[in-house]
Design a protein that fits this description.
This protein is mainly beta. Among the domains are: about 160 residues, no CATH class; about 50 residues. The longest helix has 6 residues.
Length: about 325
């Protein structure tokens, strides 16, 4: 028999009476069973049909991670029009007091230290992407930052809810109203990795409603893509890097103390239009050094209709 963690009823609210709760292995569409009692001797149906209050006895297996998908009573199996989806819900090891609440406000409303670990299903609403897992730290006195550290509403001088590092971080789970900051101490690397699964290409996204700043004090910024790399503004691709060409939707401008170095081609004979190593591609600009004429130097541009050059003296 597996070990289960008792906690209050799963509560999606009266507005979701009769809704279906599908439970899957985290990150997949493979169903994973929950139980109806702490004894773990009665499996739930999957999906769980919520009662007239929008509630149900949904007890996860200790140590397993789940994905919850709430769908209308009329939806299909698997659901095609879910109400919300919350992934990476971790159920801690046996012996840990644990509960699930809808939002961070609900977490802060709990009595200090009421549970060892609490899983939230959202930041301000369920399924808004701000879900996270917290543990009670009875000795913490840090200020409430609305993300990683939460002070209970009872405002104790000592004791805080600390976010656990579960491998899932986003701007809502760190700070629903402020910034996402990923900091590396001791000159360590920061690596954002996405893996392909279920036939889908993995993708890493850095998104910001205002500005996104990448500040490297030393070292390099490396963008490494298996195929193309896209820099977007909104939903519009502004810059595409495909390994050989940088394509810009708008004029490319270098300002400040930075510099832009065009390709330098030293050879006997003016470069002709084309894509070869001794040629100049359409819309390309390069420096040509004529090795057959005292190394005279030219700025050459292929404007599609013809190749033009300007001698540099």
């Amino acid at each position: 028999m597996s070990t289960f963690i008792p906690f209050p009823k799963f509560d999606a609210g009266v507005s979701n009476a009769g809704a279906q709760l599908f439970t899957y292995i985290a990150g997949t569409t493979t169903k994973q069973t929950t139980q109806t009692t702490p004894a773990g001797d009665v499996d739930n149906a999957n999906p769980v049909v919520l009662d007239s209050l929008g509630q149900g006895n949904v007890l996860p297996t200790a140590g397993l991670s789940y994905k919850y998908v709430l769908a209308p009573s009329t939806d299909t199996d698997p659901p095609t029009s879910p109400i919300w989806t919350v992934d990476n819900i971790s159920s801690p090891a046996s012996g840990t007091s644990f509960t699930i609440v809808n939002t961070k406000a609900a977490l802060k409303a709990l009595a200090s230290g009421a549970f060892n670990v609490v899983q939230t299903l959202g930041y301000t609403t369920v399924g808004d992407g701000g879900h996270a897992e917290y543990r009670w730290n009875a000795t913490d006195t840090a200020a409430d930052d609305a993300g990683r550290t939460l002070q209970p509403d009872s405002a104790p001088g000592t004791g805080r809810w600390n976010m656990l590092d579960t491998g899932y971080i986003n701007d809502l789970s760190l700070n629903g109203t402020g910034d996402l900051e990923i900091t590396s101490a001791n000159d360590k690397d920061i690596v954002l990795t996405s893996y392909a699964s279920a036939g889908n290409l993995g993708e890493v996204g850095i998104h910001g409603d205002a500005a996104v700043t990448i500040d490297v004090q030393s070292g390099s910024i490396i963008l490494d893509g298996a195929t193309d790399i896209f820099l977007k503004s909104g939903a519009v691709t502004q810059v595409t890097l495909d390994g050989t060409t940088i394509t810009c939707a708008k004029p490319f401008v270098v300002t400040g103390n930075s510099s832009f170095t065009p390709r330098i081609l030293s050879q006997d004979g003016e470069p002709a239009a084309g894509t070869g190593a001794t040629q100049i591609a359409t819309s390309e600009m390069l420096i040509w050094v004529d090795t057959n004429d005292l190394n005279r130097t030219y700025l050459v541009f292929n404007r599609a209709t013809n190749v033009v050059k300007l001698e540099l003296t």
